[in-house]
Amino acid sequence: MELETSDGQAGGEQIRLSDLIREKRWDEALRLLEEALAVRPRDPALWYHRGCALAHLGRLAEAEDALTHCLTERPGSRAAQCLLATISALRRTEGAAEDPPAPISRVRAARPDGRPD
């Protein structure tokens, strides 16, 4: 799978990102996403994937922020809306517990190919 940015660009960084996501190397994927966002800060696909990586790392508040930013750039993204709602519910449920939130690895993206709509 090759990830594309919203402007249709594809290349080495997208292929590498796809590999990192497939291999569940979330820290490395997050670093690559942050580099890409420094160049394309308004790209909703990058914000969506940043939210996913953060969620898998258990950094749910930051994941919510990234997904909210994705929805600012692409208000109709069902994948971002679904994941944001899931994270919000998970945070409410786990917020009552004293343990830190678990990674969201048990939650799947709205689309099986992992791309936002």
Topology of this protein?
Blueprint: H1 12-22, H2 26-39, H3 44-56, H4 60-73, H5 78-95
Helix pairs in contact: 1-2, 2-3, 3-4, 3-5, 4-5
Question: Would you write up a description of this structure?
Answer:
With 117 residues, the chain is an all-alpha fold. The chain is 60% helix and 0% strand. It is built from five helices and no strands. The longest helix is centred in the C-terminal third of the chain and has 18 residues, at 78-95. The protein is globular. Mean pLDDT is 79; it is low at 1-7 and 106-113.
What is this entry, summarized?
By secondary structure, the chain is mainly alpha-helical.
Question: Main attributes?
Answer:
117 residues, Serine Threonine Protein Phosphatase 5, Tetratricopeptide repeat
CATH superfamily (homologous) name: Tetratricopeptide repeat domain
CATH class: Mainly Alpha
Which strand-content bin applies to the residues?
A: under 5%
Mean pLDDT over all positions: 79
Main β sheet profile: none
Determine the CATH topology: Serine Threonine Protein Phosphatase 5, Tetratricopeptide repeat
N-to-C CA distance: 15 Å
Rg result: 13 Å
* Shape estimate: globular
Annotated CATH architecture: Alpha Horseshoe
Number of spatially distinct domains: 1
Tally of DSSP helical segments: 5
The SS-based structural class is: mainly alpha
Helicity, in percent?
A: 55-70%
What is the total tally of β strands?
A: 0
List low-confidence stretches. 1-7, 106-113
Write the element-wise H/E pattern from the N-terminal end onward: HHHHH
